[in-house]
Amino acid sequence: MNTMNVTNMFGKNIRRLRKLRGLSQEALADKAGLHRTYIGSVERGERNITLVNAERIANALDVHITDCLKEEK
Amino acid sequence: MNTMNVTNMFGKNIRRLRKLRGLSQEALADKAGLHRTYIGSVERGERNITLVNAERIANALDVHITDCLKEEK
Fold first, then answer.
1. Which chain B residues contact residue A49 at CB under 8 A?
2. CB of A46 less than 8 A from some CB of B
3. B19 close contact with A: CB closer than 8 A
4. Per-residue DSSP letters for A24-71?
5. B59 and A1 Cβ atoms separated by less than 8 Å
6. Are A58 and A68 in contact (CB under 8 A)?
7. Is A41 within 8 Å of chain B by CB?
8. pLDDT for A6-23, tens place per residue?
9. Pick from B2, B48, B51: which is nearest to A10 by CB?
10. How confident is the model at residue B73 (pLDDT cuts 50, 70, 90)?
11. Contacts with A48 from chain B: Cβ below 8 Å
12. A3 CB near a chain B CB, below 8 Å?
């Protein structure tokens, strides 16, 4: 259905939203209760993360999980 | 952010969409390339599934993954 792989799309969106909020990977990781290197690999689309971790990251960015899974216009 | 757990919300949505399409769990499983018992446990919110499998199920239901992650009105 999507041309872009879902893990890549999620990673691109959270990187974009994190930068928009002026957060470092470390600051986002702290807010989400995850490790900085984990956030880095998620942003690069390298991890097939679970819905629960995806929601934790979305919550830390103050967005709904669906906002991290939309193709940017 | 959500009152309902993300895995429960996903499960409820895919059960609703599957029934709307008149598909059995087995038929959906076949379309998605997954096992029927796996679909059953996902529908019951028992599995913290990955983005890739969530998208496979959404594709088999002809919806976008975000349609499976919205709280039903």
1. 50-51
2. no
3. no
4. -HHHHHHHHTS-HHHHHHHHTT----BHHHHHHHHHHTTS-GGGGSSP
5. yes
6. yes
7. no
8. 999 999 999 999 999 999
9. B51
10. low
11. 50-52
12. no
Cα–Cα distance measured from residue B36 to residue B28, given in angstroms and rounded to the nearest whole number: 8
So what's the pLDDT on residue B68?
97
Check A55 against B10: CB less than 8 A apart. Answer: no
Instruction: Tell if the CB–CB gap between B54 and A1 is shorter than 8 Å.
Output: no
- Closest-CA distance, A68 to chain B, in angstroms, reads 9
Q: Mean pLDDT over all residues of chain B? A: 93
Give pLDDT tens digits for A34-70: 999 999 999 999 999 999 999 999 999 999 999 999 9
Residue B47: what residue type? R
CB atoms within 10 A of CB B24: 12
- Give the model's confidence band at A2: pLDDT under 50 very low, under 70 low, under 90 confident, else very high: very low
CA A50 to each of CA A5, B19, B29, B47: distance values in angstroms, whole numbers, following the listed order: 15, 25, 19, 9
Cβ atoms of B52 and A2 within 8 Å: the answer is no
**B52 Cβ contact list (under 8 Å, min separation 6):** A6, A7, A48
